[in-house]
Write a structure and sequence with these properties.
167 residues; 8 helices
Length: 167
């Protein structure tokens, strides 16, 4: 994957560069430790210009998100770094972007189905390691699953994870 960010706007929409070392309260060392532990393809997703383009197109698709690209980049970063559980992504989108639950669910599904699709198995693996549960399950699992992680996730087609709350 390439890292050909051209402008300061690109940096603001990059999940990797959205918060720099000068951002107050941002734990740069902790962040870098998490980045160093990522599989190469997930690191690539964080720095790839295609991710910036995806976030830019998402903000253009939804007029009310036009200035919230950096917040979307942060949510994407936080899911990949397992700071946010992927099943909680709709509520994070709603809370951080100030949109209703239906729009938040639509945005989260778009991110998962279009941006995360090529790397979803690695994301699910990290999510299981961090949270002890897989998207779609209601409770943490005390032991490792007997099945391949993610094979029993609710899907609506392809590798799209059903992010609706199951509570």
């Amino acid at each position: 994957m390439q890292n050909n960010l051209q402008s300061s706007e690109d940096f603001g929409l990059s999940p990797y560069f959205v918060d720099g070392s000068s951002t107050p309260g941002f734990g740069w060392e902790r962040f870098q430790d998490k980045i160093d532990a990522l599989p190469e393809n997930l690191y690539g997703l964080l720095v790839d210009e295609k991710t910036v383009d995806f976030i830019g197109s998402l903000t253009r698709r939804y007029a009310q998100l036009s200035v919230q690209g950096p917040d979307i980049a942060r949510i994407i970063r936080d899911v990949i770094l397992t700071d946010v559980y992927i099943g909680d992504m709709p509520s994070e989108v709603s809370k951080k972007l100030g949109v209703d639950q239906n729009m938040a669910l639509e945005i989260a599904r778009t991110v998962v189905s279009q941006l995360f699709a090529p790397v979803i198995e690695d994301i699910k693996k990290l999510q299981f390691q961090r949270f002890g549960k897989l998207p779609g399950s209601s409770a943490p699992q005390s032991t490792a699953p007997q099945k391949v992680p993610g094979e029993d996730l609710p899907e609506t087609g392809g590798n799209i994870i059903d992010l609706r709350s199951k509570s």
